[in-house]
């Protein structure tokens, strides 16, 4: 039995393939997010595909050619760097079977039907006036329309739920019903935030300086607060998939499951929240977990990860490895002496071609 997590190279976004081999010839396959728009060709023309990022297309094609499909597809939240590639894949008939029949996607319509939330004018019930390919709200509405036609199995996913499978369990850590209600009445267009693309990076500072001057400033993004985060537990392995979830929400959920500073959750892998943003990995969370390998998913074009996040991990989880799905970030972020001193902890994933 074994479990693998492949953080695909989808530019500044997330697209994660998880395979849980739990018995002979039995594998449970999960796709989490699809990266930003443009990481997958809209039509199957090689000349067009050559201009796209290849990793997601390669993953879907390998499943399609092998006659395989995902047992579960998860859209953590509607930010463009998570939904864009997934929407493009659903628009292609040759990929729909690969994406499977079970999807987790907390759309405004599903929130309204399950939580009886009153929709605002900014929700995807009144989406016609909102245009533009980078507007994640419109992408969410388009995906909802497609799913209404395709009729896959859907359910509202909320913190506190546990899904049981033959191979193990999935505990939902985020979002709360309160956070989903807040999202439903405050759908936002895709606007760069100071937390990410406008803030600059902290790579000139040393890890020692960042540890000494550390002060946690929490992410306050409403879409990020709505992000699905979950814990996989099986005999094949354990993993945390955190999307862009708020660190305090995840910490609260872990405490509700009985984990404390003296009874830490041991996991094999953890995909860090929000591409390693310092606002989404708080000291409290790190004090509740023992992680063999943290994974950071981004090419750095969004000025993430924050080096402060890595400094924080090295302080609270000093034996954990930190893996980047874009190897070139190592030399960009760390000084030469840091790469030497932490060479046993800082690693890179080769990624799909």
Verbal overview:
Helices cover 31% and strands 21% of the residues. The two termini are 26 Å apart. The chain is globular and about 55 Å long. Residues 47-52, 117-135 and 188-198 have low confidence and may be disordered. It has helices at 46-49, 55-66, 80-91, 93-96, 108-115, 136-150, 177-184, 207-212, 222-225, 247-256, 283-287, 307-316, 329-333, 336-341; strands at 2-7, 16-23, 26-32, 72-74, 102-104, 153-154, 162-165, 168-174, 229-234, 237-241, 265-271, 289-296, 321-324, 346-348. It has 353 residues and is of the alpha/beta class.
Mean pLDDT: 88
Strand content: 15-25%
Tell the overall outline: globular
Q: Span from first to last CA?
A: 26 Å
Q: Estimate nothing, just give the exact number of structural domains.
A: 1
Give the CATH topology: Metallo-beta-lactamase, Chain A
The second-level CATH architecture is 4-Layer Sandwich
Classify the helix fraction into a percent range: 25-40%
Number of strands: 14
Oligomer: single chain
Helical stretch tally: 14
Structural class call reads: alpha/beta
**Radius of gyration in whole Å, from Cα?**
19 Å
Spatial order of strands in the largest sheet: 7-8-9-10-11-12-13-14
Quickly name the level 1 CATH class.
Answer: Alpha Beta
What is the CATH superfamily? Answer: Ribonuclease Z/Hydroxyacylglutathione hydrolase-like
Protein name: ComEC/Rec2 family competence protein
Organism: Paraburkholderia phymatum
């Amino acid at each position: 039995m074994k479990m693998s997590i492949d953080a695909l190279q989808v530019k500044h976004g997330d697209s994660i393939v998880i395979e849980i081999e739990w018995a002979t010839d039995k594998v449970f396959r999960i796709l989490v997010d699809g990266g930003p728009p443009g990481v997958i060709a809209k039509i199957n023309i090689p000349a067009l595909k050559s201009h796209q990022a290849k990793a997601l297309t390669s993953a879907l094609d390998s499943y399609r050619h092998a006659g395989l499909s995902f047992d579960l597809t998860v859209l953590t939240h509607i930010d463009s760097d998570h939904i864009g590639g997934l929407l493009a894949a659903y628009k292609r008939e040759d990929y729909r079977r690969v994406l499977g029949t079970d999807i987790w996607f907390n759309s405004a319509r599903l929130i309204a039907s399950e939580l009886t939330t009153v929709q605002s004018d900014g929700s995807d019930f009144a989406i016609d006036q909102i245009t533009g390919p980078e507007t994640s709200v419109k992408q969410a509405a388009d995906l909802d329309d497609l799913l209404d036609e395709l009729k896959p199995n859907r359910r509202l996913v909320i913190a506190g739920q546990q899904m049981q499978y033959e191979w193990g369990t999935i505990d939902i850590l985020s979002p709360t019903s309160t956070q989903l209600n807040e999202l439903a009445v405050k759908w936002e267009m895709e606007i760069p935030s100071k937390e990410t693309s406008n803030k600059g990076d902290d790579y000139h500072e040393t890890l020692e300086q960042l540890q000494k001057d550390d002060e946690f400033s929490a992410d306050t993004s409403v879409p990020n607060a709505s992000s699905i985060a979950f814990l996989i537990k099986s005999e094949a392995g354990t993993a945390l998939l955190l999307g862009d979830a708020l660190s305090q929400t995840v910490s609260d959920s872990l405490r509700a499951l009985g984990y404390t500073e003296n009874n830490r959750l041991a996991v094999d892998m953890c995909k860090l929240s929000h591409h390693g943003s310092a606002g989404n990995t708080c000291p409290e969370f790190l004090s509740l977990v023992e992680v063999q390998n943290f994974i950071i998913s981004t090419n750095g074009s969004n000025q993430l990860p924050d080096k402060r996040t890595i400094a924080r991990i090295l302080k609270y989880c000093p034996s954990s490895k930190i893996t980047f799905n874009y190897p070139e970030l190592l030399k960009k972020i760390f000084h030469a002496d840091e790469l030497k001193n932490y060479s046993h902890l800082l690693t890179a994933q080769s990624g799909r071609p």
